[in-house]
């Protein structure tokens, strides 16, 4: 019985008609889409016309040999080649691998075993192709959309954003101020099926409480003072596209209920109107708050939190991104050198080391401003330590040195604990929920310690 699901497209190249038909029938019954060819020359015609996941090639073919055919397929297509032979030897196996064969199987063939192996090959190939597709989405400088960086934390972000982009699911982007949350939101939109629709952004913390409902839902003429005409809200303006709600944690409580209703019912009612308007909008929200903790404390609606947090993308702080600091610094250097019409070509070793050592509390935004200042002030072709702001020039790393023999480098156990807590918070992008789990502390204890550090001026 033929399986309903297509497990992959196969081409069987075998000059023995009985074995060719046996493989074709058996593998078709296992759920593969199978075509067949009696010779290398016939198979090349099929390969020109269509794509196959795997080509099963007999080693001994009339005319062009199986090894020659294997080399052609590997050079000219993306198909995997599996060599079939009744004459097992180390020499033939080595020759097959040198010709680019993906695998090597022996006759007589057990169709069930062949199907199992082919299924694994097809799965591996498709995973490889998906990874390559995602790499093609990534910017040549090692990024995704406007995001730049090659560090492992950012690669994980790119992978998540690449998989989330085609979805209609709501996305919550979290991270410290200056980590690039709006760039991530724009990248999601630009790689989504809504890319031809509008991208509309609102900073929720910048709109007065009494105006945010009108800003989001619109208003009817005469609904309040100065409402001299009907006005479409941002939900309506974003119809068919993406609405980015930055700093969503700052939305007042009563407005959170109205926002939840709009998201659930996919309708909005302008202020002062009796008519509801259907909306087709994807929501991407962002915050530098710990919304999960806020929801547990009653400071943010839990049902709204779960509604916007279908997919969670956490952007790492710049200090957790290793040498991305230098990659980004060079990126900004090129931009501002062109803007200032100055030939600044690089960063000297001392300045580069200080950029890597600094903890960047303002993240990428702070680095951008630092490089704009450095390019504007430098008199040389390379940025030097003197061109950097004083807070960066005089910065000293705060790593705990455990193995030192110098008593002056050792610190009290309380300081070791504080630095470790702060390091864990950095690694999880400031999420106190995640940090408390790693540290083995309940969240109230973690909050108390952070408040103490803040009172002591140690955060």
Description of the structure:
This protein is α/β, with parallel strands linked by helices and 459 residues long. The chain has four domains: 9-134, Rossmann fold, CATH 3.40.50.2300; 143-314, Rossmann fold (3-Layer(aba) Sandwich); 318-393, Helicase, Ruva Protein, domain 3 (Orthogonal Bundle); 407-455, Homeodomain-like (Arc Repressor Mutant, subunit A, Orthogonal Bundle), CATH 1.10.10.60. It has helices at 17-29, 40-49, 66-76, 90-98, 111-137, 152-164, 181-190, 212-217, 234-237, 253-265, 291-297, 302-308, 324-340, 349-357, 363-377, 390-393, 413-427, 432-439, 443-455; strands at residues 9-13, 33-37, 54-58, 80-85, 103-106, 138-139, 143-144, 147-148, 171-174, 199-203, 218-219, 231-232, 242-246, 267-268, 277-278, 282-287, 311-314, 346-347, 382-383. The strands form six sheets. A five-stranded parallel β-sheet has the order 2-1-3-4-5, with helices on both faces. A five-stranded parallel β-sheet has the order 10-13-16-9-17. A three-stranded antiparallel β-sheet has the order 6-7-8. Helix 1 (17-29) packs across helix 5 and helix 13 (324-340) packs across helix 15. The model is unreliable at 131-140 (pLDDT under 50).
